[in-house]
Amino acid sequence: MAALEDDTFDLLIAAHWCGDQSGDDLIPHARRLLPGLPAIVLMASPHESEIVGSLQAGADDCISKPVRGPEMLARIDALLRRAGVRRPRNRARHGFGDYLFDSARYQVSFRGQTVTLTPKEFRFALLLFTNASRPVSRARILETVWNLNRDVRSRTLDTHASRLRSKLQLGPEHGWRLTTLYGFGYQLERLPISPAE
User: Fold this and answer.
1) 3-class SS of residue 97
2) Which residues contact 54 (CB under 8 A, 6 or more apart)?
3) Tens digits of per-residue pLDDT, 25-74?
4) How many CB atoms lie within 10 A of CB 190?
5) Lowest-confidence range among 47-56, 79-88, 102-111?
6) Domains plus CATH for the chain?
7) By the 8 A CB rule, do 166 and 125 touch?
8) Angle 154-167/119-130 helices, nearest 10 degrees?
9) Taking a C-beta distance cutoff of 8 angstroms, is the pair 110, 98 a contact?
10) Angle 23-33/48-57 helices, nearest 10 degrees?
11) 135 SS3 class
12) Number of Cβ atoms within 10 Å of the Cβ of 172
């Protein structure tokens, strides 16, 4: 709950009973800190009244334990899709406007040119483009790009962001802006380009 005050999350998965409180109490509390947070409750042999209570408390879905992996992943994808959360899919090529990402070669093609990125730069850029117009936290970047749960120096992230701005020409003149959100992370925005430009 403390992390919700400083970070952003895509989804809450809660047990019907979470140690010292029920999932029915946890979900409204989490939503006060992060409005619109999608939530799934896991239940062991639930009674209908428990499912109804969780849904009325704000759960978006209830899943019976033991959980079947493929079904749970499908339910999570469906819920995130409805919530508007965009995640990179496991495929080799991703397109975002003029930018085409080739995961096999760590290359990005745009406006008639192709740039090869380091693996970390590529993962960082793909995360930003996948979540364009959404703030992306430092914690999410560290987990996705560096596979770390601990912090790294701010200068390291700033250096990588600066390289991406330069290599991918992320400037207003090309219709993109990469903004540093001090104390939080980064946000990539698509900008309108006037006909004169």
Assistant:
1) coil
2) 16, 23, 24, 27, 41, 43, 62
3) 788 888 777 777 888 888 888 889 888 988 888 888 888 888 877 888 88
4) 13
5) 79-88
6) 3-83 (3.40.50.2300), 93-190 (1.10.10.10)
7) no
8) 80
9) yes
10) 10
11) coil
12) 12
